[in-house]
Amino acid sequence: MFTHFKCSRLFRTISLFVLWGAYSCFAQNATNPLIYTDVPDASMIRVGNNYYMVSTTMYMSPGVPIMKSTNLVDWELVNYAYDRLIESDQMNMTNGQNAYGKGSWASSINYKDGVFYIHTFSYTSNKSHIYKTTDIENGPFTAYSISPLAHDASLFFDDDGKAYLAYGHDDITLRELNSTVTDYQAGGYNQVIIKKASSVAGSNFILTAEGTQMFKVNGWYYVVNICWPSGKGRSVVVHRSKNLKGPYEGRLALDDQGVAQGGLIGTPTGKWYAYLFQDHGAVGRIPYLVPVTWENNWPVFARVPATLDIVKVKKDLRGIIKSDDFGTIQKQNRGLGLEWQWNHNPVNTAWSLNARPGFLRLTNDRVDASFVATRNTLTQRSIGPESIGSVAIELDGMKDGDVAGLGALQYSYGYVGVKMTGNSKSIVMVNGTNNNPVEVASVPISQNRVYLKIRMDFKNRADKAYFSYSLDGKTWNTIGNTLNMTFDLKHFVGYRFGLFNFGTRSAGGFVDFDHYIINDYPFETPLPIVPHAVPGKIEAEDYASMSGIESEADASGAINIGFINSGDWAQYKIDVKEKTNYEVKFRIATGAEVNSEIIIRNEKNDSLGTLIVKADLSNDWHDWYEASAVISLNAGEQNLKLEFKGTSDYLFNIDWMEFSKYIPLGNLKTISSGSDIQIRGLYFNSGKEVHFTVKAERGQAYKMTLFDLKGANLVTQYGEGSKTMVLSSTEFLHQGVYFLSVTSPGHPTVTYRVIRE
């Protein structure tokens, strides 16, 4: 017994040691920088055990990225606050204008009573923008614009429920918002609460206080700002007061390695941290996490640590940066992964994931002069300490004067690409230092598939980019010279990889990107698309793929698809229970003045049926009505495509479609005859509804009654003229025989025998 006990104890000790050793190998503490990529001007909240962070991406679209974490160190993109900030020449890159260095700046996130709120501001729109949602990860958001804009504003809720923006340069203003947080409160509080907020850190400044963030902790109000004293690094200053409106007292909170601008966040266990960023050269402004303790109701910032007391689970940044083989159509971001953002507003008709499945197609829609002047450049962040991004690109669709490839995007840019001259192609490297493009090297090629690569070295702020190409994806050749990368305020973002295609002589040329690989991250294995059951109801936004359409929120907060132009389409994966005819009923709304069509096609692109969307049945884009068509479907899993045709700028919106078995009631027996009224297309749609079309003279009135076998009156309805009718019974209509009686003054009664199978 004694020996057995000793052996058991020894075994357990060894086992625990081995397990601890194994754990320590795989679960290591997080280190600073927290995220080695451009995530500036962060604002953060905790809701339960989830943390949500928003950041700045300037002129990129979609904008205001929303990231989620459960431990403050492992983050993933879950959404964006908007698809397009505004429509303007600057954001659309039209009429020679652009929004480089502008767009939307420092954002703020908050949460109150089940609603998430995001504020950002823009010197491009010259307004502040507020976005609201009850579902931060899926949306939809409702958007509001207010004026004047509030620079670097913090959206703050006091305990009484009132909302404020705290903002400004050095003199920090507090301004009250209305009760719905959609505009300023008329006659509401609007005063400077802190004068010369930077004065607690010195007297001479490169940058006075900005980047305001406001918090309330244990009955105290805290205002956190960044400033930059002359001869020192960027610093954090904190002011506090027991009263929202002051007076405030302040102190210097942190002056260490230039880590500054951000706010405070508490954990469920009572720990506190400051989330801040550091200007880190060409890679951008990168986040740091700094422990905070409390002394005499002051937040005390630790020196910026190299290692944090939080276990990191993920080994890389695949929640923010990802490789992509363009083989999966995502539900958000118009089918692209959330890691992708466009350089300015994209032209959605000039790119596609469906023109050639498994590829990203970029098509030139106009003539442009350079890489930074063209639209529809698709970007991802670079990462430190080293980024290696590569693409495979197919060139069959290029035209004379086209240039396409992979770029390093900032004011001083560079790219490796393919240039088409006449019928000849060559791989080129262009160095665009100080926005002055020079073609450094050119190599003729005779094939239609090439591989391009850029390596960005950020180690010890080397900030160098190197370019290479391959003809087979295996052997790589250096091309051109080295790009000296510089973080330039003219663009105000860290370097990004950009997939581009522009035409210098004509529009219409295209290229197909087969894949994008970052730092050898493997492609994600897509989850299989779960087909929708037929019979059944399908929400219109739950498509498997689409072209041109957008998901949007209607007035009730539900989601529908809209912004539909002629030629757009949506495809759905369905699983049909049995081969038969089905009625497909659509919930539609339109503000168009002319009719349009929904053409229903199978996966062979054969037309199964067409629904006419009648403009006179709806007065607005969310004035819904229902219409249906009958189609024949084979059993099993298959793709169903809706193709949209019309002549208006926008055609209609679709909320949902519902499939039900179509049961024609052929051989209907006419008990009485001689009436001018005819009933056609009679069928049961559900357990309580009978659908049919009445053919009658204009102005001819009639009464319809549905009876059961016992002669009980189930439902009576009146009509006039030819129209589509729906009789909805209060009783459930079980399988069996029913009778539909139609009576019209001056005409014999007509009775139809109706069978529900």
Characterise this structure.
It is a single chain. With 757 residues, this protein is mainly β. The protein contains two helices and 57 strands. Strands 4-24-27-37-29-30-31-32 form an eight-stranded antiparallel sheet, with no helix packed on it. Strand 51 and strand 52 form a beta hairpin. The longest helix has 25 residues. It is globular and about 100 Å long. The relative contact order is 0.08. The N terminus is likely disordered.
Compact description:
With 757 residues, the protein is mainly beta.
What are its keywords?
mainly beta, 757 residues, 49% strand, 2 helices, 57 strands, 8-stranded antiparallel β-sheet, 4% helix
Task: Please state the average pLDDT score.
Answer: 90
Strand order of the largest sheet: 4-24-27-37-29-30-31-32
* Shape estimate: globular
Q: With helices defined by DSSP (H or I, 4 residues minimum), what is the helix count? A: 2
Major sheet size, sense and barrel closure: 8 strands, antiparallel
Strand runs, count = 57
Unreliable residue runs: 1-26, 665-674
Give the DSSP E fraction (strand runs of 2 or more residues): over 45%
Strand pairing plus helix content: what structural class? mainly beta
Fraction of residues in helix = under 10%
N- to C-terminal separation? Answer: 77 Å
Rg for CA atoms: 32 Å
